[in-house]
Structures are given as C-alpha cells and as structure tokens.
C-alpha cells in the first residue's frame, strides 16, 4: 500500500571530469584524479510551491483578514454571480417563524446552535474560542459560541453500513436526537417563561490546564475543555432524571472549521484517497489510515439502492459532499429546513409536539405550500459558495527558516498523514453532491496536506464516540493549506476539534496515537528547529 505521495523531487546533476595537461612533450604525463561528486540535498516537492490550489488559488488577499473569503479566480461570470449570491446567503441571519415582513428570513429553530453560517465559520475560517472570564471559571454557551456538542447512545462498533443497520448512523438520544441544541426561540421550551430562548439544555464550558516540558526545559501550557450539561428540557429541576444523564449517552464537541477549498477536496478521486489506506500498517511505520464510509443523503434522495459514499468532510469524515455537509448544518445547526433535510431536527419528539401546540402550529418547518424554509435557490447558492472559495497562496517561501521547516516537516514524517498533493478529477461529467462540478475545480494540482483518512490520534484527543465507521479515537487528517492565516483572519480562533489549542505548537503537542512518533520527534528538536517547523506551517 502507498502510504503517502512522495515528498521529494529528485534533483539531477552532471559531473565534469577534471584533467590536467602537461607540456608539449610527445609522451603524455596527464594524470586523471577521480573527483567525488558533490552531495546534492533532496528537497521536499512542496518547498517552492506557492499556488496551493493551482488556478483556484488567490494571490491577492495574503495577510488579510479576508484571506479565506475570495472566490476562485477561474470562475466564469455566471459562476461568480452565483458565488456572490451564496456569499450573501452565508451571512444571512434567520429569524423566528412567522416573519411576515421578511418571510425569506424566517425558520430558525425552534432549537438551534446559531442563526447564520458565519457565526460558526467566522470570515470563512474558524470561530473564536469561548473562554471564561477567569482561568478557573466556567461560561455558558450562547450566541457567540461556534462550538456545539454531538450526542448519541453507545451502540458498539459498526463495520459495514447497509440498510439493516441504518447505514451505521449513530443511535439518537430519545427526545434529543444526535446534536445538542443549546439555544431556542422564545417559546421553544414548555417552561419558556422561566427559560426565555432556552434550547434543549444549557451547556457550560470550563478548562483544565497542564504543563508540558520539552527535553530542553521549555514549558508550554495546554488546556483541555470540560463540558457540563444542565437544565435539560425533559427534567429542568433534576438533571439526573433527564435522558441526557443516562450512562450510555456519549458527548463530543464540534468546533466550526474553515470552508475554503472544499470543492477541490470533493473533486479528489476516491481511488487516489483509497490508495493511501493502510489499515494493517503493512509498512510498519505506525501509521494506518482508514476511510470512513457514510450515509449519502443525496444518493438516498435519488433513490439509489445503497446510498453509501466515501466520507470526506467533518471532523470524522462523516459526510460525503459539500452539499450534504452544508445543508445538514443549515437544518441542524440553525434549524432551517431545506429540500435535502425537510424535517426539523427535533421532529416527532415531545418537545417539538409541545412547541407546535403552544404556538398554534405557526412554525412547522414548511410554508403554506408545503415547501421547506430555505428555498432551493438559497440552498444551491450557499453550497456553491462553500465549493468555490479560493485557497490563499503560500507566503515567505524563500525565507530560510520556512525552507528549513519544510524539510523538517518531512524528516519527522508529518506528511505520513498530511499528504502534500493530489490532482483533482478531470472527468468531463464530474458531479459534486449530485450537481455538475464547476470546470475550474477539475484537473487542478492541489497541495492541501491531508490524506482525507481517519487516524487514531491517541487517548488525549479521544472523544470515545463512534461516527459511522470512525472509532472514538479516530479523527480525519485536517488540511493544512491556509492554516498560517488562521489568526490573521480571526485572532481568537483555536485549533483541533474542540478549539483547545491556542497555537499550532499546542496542536502538535496534542497529537498522539499514530502521530505519536512524529510528535515525539518534534519535541526532541531544539527550540530553533521547532520554530522552523512552525514558521513553515505559517507559510501554508
């Protein structure tokens, strides 16, 4: 099995044979002295790459707070107009239904986590990390939180998604579902007069801190989030009686993630991704890599018998397309129904039935014509926007420290999971989420630094919750392109699935499991070399 695309470009050289000549005597006294050829250093293939997404790279927004928010420069005029429509829709804040003045804006909730896409993907990047006012305090998640909790019942291992096991979907918590909504519209709860705008439950966040010490004595403070749930709708006065308090309920935090370059990642062929799998670690490098096979809502809507596809998006590669990822978030995170997810997230629960009765069935998730809350025009524009955001070009590629860091990145085998490059499909009829792909996405040489596979990342990052085939210790390799602009776009952003890492250095130190060897090699570098790895990452 191929573990990763070769990180080196061979350099070739010619040897000149040197000779010395004597005087004009008829006999030759020439001596030929063998010369040892110079040692030519092999450089990583990506060391001089600037355009990380080929023709879909943007070069004019570097070091800008809007570095992630530029359309692909190779869109047609019609595609650019659709992208710009999607840009507007991405920032649209929905309101409680009915909204007679602006009916196109109604439909949020009745329970939700945020009311617009930008709230979790600030400037198309990561959200600000939620922090208590004091290190030992805790804070209630509210409208400024770009993070939420997945929930489900422990249900063992699922190895082969099919119709008999509901395609390995997680088992929802009775009365709650598979996502915990910490916000709601005014009368979402039966006790709404005591809990205005309350969701399914209150979620509180605090942190515990530890010190990591390098072999050279330098220390780094690491923080780990601790979530507490209280005031559940089904038992507000005694949480221990809530369904959420059952011992078999599993929770997992999900932080918002960047949304640029997604169409390019979807256009990588299945074959190229699957070629990197090594589930039995056949080359004994400690790195496996496993695909996640997941339920495909688009295929199901099309009536395909086995609606299963390769997972590509989400922290555990639990969705197969940008369309499903976007429209599931529209219905889930925001509570706005659409043609792919036409029912409210809490449909057919006692909470929803009570809400409908209390509000005289004014907010059923459909309009008078039976259509969902988000039109197809709105949905298609938002999906296209997320598919066609450009990837920012690299910066400082001639900086000696950046170049040294690029070599160290390879030497400590970070590219064992963060595969540098792919070429997107050139298929003439390429479909993304059931819709014809833009031409500008096809045939691009891209450098996302991800293998798109699942890896065991160790106990420190484990959420102990299955997600389709992904175990409680597995996470999808995050793309690294654009990561150096994260703090430029949003200075308050954090890294990893729950935002725990304030810096790239902290994120590296949390790596374990299959990444433990690379992480340990990083810690054994001296301070200057560690910084070179970081500045290389910041160049991406």
Mind explaining what this structure looks like?
The protein is an alpha+beta fold. The chain is built from 12 helices and 20 strands. The protein has helices at residues 77-90, 262-266, 270-274, 297-301, 322-332, 350-358, 376-387, 400-411, 486-489, 504-509, 516-524, 527-539, and strands at residues 8-9, 43-44, 57-58, 111-112, 139-140, 147-153, 179-180, 183-184, 202-213, 219-230, 249-255, 293-295, 308-310, 391-392, 422-423, 431-432, 435-436, 445-446, 454-456, 474-476. The chain has a 3-stranded antiparallel sheet, with no helix packed on it. It has a 3-stranded antiparallel sheet with strand order 7-6-11, with no helix packed on it. β9 (202-213) and β10 form a beta hairpin. α1 packs across α7 (376-387), α5 packs across α7 and α8 packs across α12. Mean pLDDT is 93; it is low at 1-29.
Could you give the topology of this structure?
Elements: E1 8-9, E2 43-44, E3 57-58, H1 77-90, E4 111-112, E5 139-140, E6 147-153, E7 179-180, E8 183-184, E9 202-213, E10 219-230, E11 249-255, H2 262-266, H3 270-274, E12 293-295, H4 297-301, E13 308-310, H5 322-332, H6 350-358, H7 376-387, E14 391-392, H8 400-411, E15 422-423, E16 431-432, E17 435-436, E18 445-446, E19 454-456, E20 474-476, H9 486-489, H10 504-509, H11 516-524, H12 527-539
Parallel strand pairs: 3-14
Antiparallel strand pairs: 1-2, 4-8, 5-9, 6-7, 6-11, 9-10, 12-13, 15-18, 16-17, 19-20
Helix pairs in contact: 1-7, 5-7, 8-12
């Amino acid at each position: 099995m191929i573990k990763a695309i070769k990180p080196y470009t061979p350099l070739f050289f010619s040897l000149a044979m040197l000779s010395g000549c004597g005087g004009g005597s008829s006999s030759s006294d020439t001596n030929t002295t063998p010369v040892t050829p110079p040692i030519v250093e092999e450089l990583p293939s990506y060391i001089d790459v600037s355009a990380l997404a080929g023709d879909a790279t943007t070069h004019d927004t570097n070091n800008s707070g809007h570095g992630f928010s530029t359309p692909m420069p190779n869109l047609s005029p019609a595609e650019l107009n659709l992208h710009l429509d999607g840009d507007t829709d991405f920032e649209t804040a929905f309101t409680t239904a009915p909204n007679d003045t602006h009916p196109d804006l109604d439909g949020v909730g009745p329970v939700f986590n945020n009311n617009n896409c930008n709230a979790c993907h600030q400037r198309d990047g990561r959200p600000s990390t939620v922090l208590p006012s004091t290190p030992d305090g805790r804070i209630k998640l509210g409208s400024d939180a770009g993070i939420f909790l997945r929930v489900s019942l422990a249900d063992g291992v699922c190895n082969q998604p099919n119709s008999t096991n509901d395609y390995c979907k997680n088992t929802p918590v009775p009365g709650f579902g598979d996502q915990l909504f910490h916000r709601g519209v005014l009368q979402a709860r039966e006790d709404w007069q005591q809990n205005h705008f309350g969701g399914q439950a209150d979620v509180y966040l605090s942190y515990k801190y530890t010190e990591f010490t390098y072999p050279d004595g330098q220390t780094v403070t690491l923080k780990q989030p601790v979530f507490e749930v209280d005031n559940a709708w089904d038992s507000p006065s005694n949480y221990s009686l809530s369904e959420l308090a059952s011992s078999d309920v599993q929770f997992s935090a999900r932080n918002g993630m960047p949304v640029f370059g997604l169409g390019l990642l979807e256009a990588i062929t299945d074959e190229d991704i699957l070629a990197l799998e090594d589930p039995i670690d056949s080359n004994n490098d400690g790195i496996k890599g496993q695909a996640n096979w997941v339920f495909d809502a688009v295929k199901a809507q099309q009536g395909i018998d086995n609606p299963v596809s390769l997972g590509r998006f989400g922290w555990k590669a639990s969705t197969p397309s940008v369309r499903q990822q976007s429209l599931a978030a529209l219905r889930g995170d925001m509570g706005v129904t659409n043609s792919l997810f036409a029912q409210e997230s809490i449909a057919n629960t006692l909470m929803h039935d009570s809400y409908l009765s209390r509000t005289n069935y004014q907010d059923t998730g459909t309009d008078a014509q039976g259509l969902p809350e988000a039109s197809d025009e709105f949905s298609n524009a938002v999906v296209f926007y997320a598919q066609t955001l450009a990837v920012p070009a690299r910066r400082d590629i001639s900086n000696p420290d950046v170049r040294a860091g690029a070599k160290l990145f390879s030497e400590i085998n970070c590219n064992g999971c963060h595969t540098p490059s792919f070429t997107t499909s050139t298929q003439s009829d390429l479909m993304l989420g059931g819709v014809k792909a833009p031409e500008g996405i096809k045939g691009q040489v891209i450098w996302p630094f991800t293998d798109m596979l699942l890896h065991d990342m160790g106990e420190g990052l484990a959420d102990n919750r299955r997600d389709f085939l992904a175990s409680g210790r597995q996470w999808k390799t995050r793309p690294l392109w654009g990561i150096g602009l994260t703090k430029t776009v949003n200075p308050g952003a954090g890294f990893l699935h729950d935002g725990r890492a304030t810096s790239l250095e902290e994120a590296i130190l949390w790596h374990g499991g299959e990444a433990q060897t690379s992480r340990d090699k990083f810690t054994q570098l001296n301070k200057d070399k560690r910084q070179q790895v970081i500045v290389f990452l910041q160049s991406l």
